[in-house]
Every structure is written in C-alpha cells, then in structure tokens.
Design brief:
Strand content: 25-35%
Number of domains: 1
Strand order of the largest sheet: 4-3-2-1-6-5
Distance between the termini: 10 Å
Helix content: under 10%
Length: 86
C-alpha cells in the first residue's frame, strides 16, 4: 500500500550508465483513488537530492510504483520505481 513518507528508487538502467546512481523519490501525498476527480490513479511525489532535500514536486501514476525491483517471473524491471524504504 502506498503511503506518504515511502522512498522509492528508479529502475531505469540508464541511471547506472551515467554514474549518477538511481534517482530517488519520496511519496508526499496520499494516492487519489476517487473516480471522477482530477488526478485519479496518481500520487504526489518529490525527487530526493543526495542531501535528503525534496525538490520537483509532481504527480505520477501509481502504476509506476512497485514493491520489488523484479517482476512475477523474476525478471528485473526496467521502468518505474521500486520501494526502497517503507
């Protein structure tokens, strides 16, 4: 279950290629799950900098947030964000 305060890391393999490491985001709002409301199926997040400060608040689809970095079949995910810290 997605809750405010959770931290996720990017699963995009390109992050490792450029030596920056995975991007990290923090959930800062509750998921919008009421049909008919703007933002339905989205959650407000903020990008976390290395020093822990939050920047670039925005909404993303809750489908992009995953419990683990692997699929049901055990294959590594290549898109979205994996839960790092509950």
């Amino acid at each position: 279950m997605i809750q405010p305060g959770q931290i996720y890391r990017s699963l995009d393999p390109r992050d490792e290629l450029y030596g920056e490491g995975p991007r990290r985001i923090k959930v800062v709002g509750k998921p919008m799950t009421i049909p008919g409301v703007w933002g339905f199926g989205k959650v407000q997040i903020a990008t976390l900098r290395e020093d822990g400060t939050e920047t670039r608040r925005r909404r993303i689809s809750i489908d992009q947030l995953h419990d683990s970095p692997t699929t049901r079949d055990g294959q590594p995910r290549r898109t979205g964000y994996a839960l790092e810290q509950p």
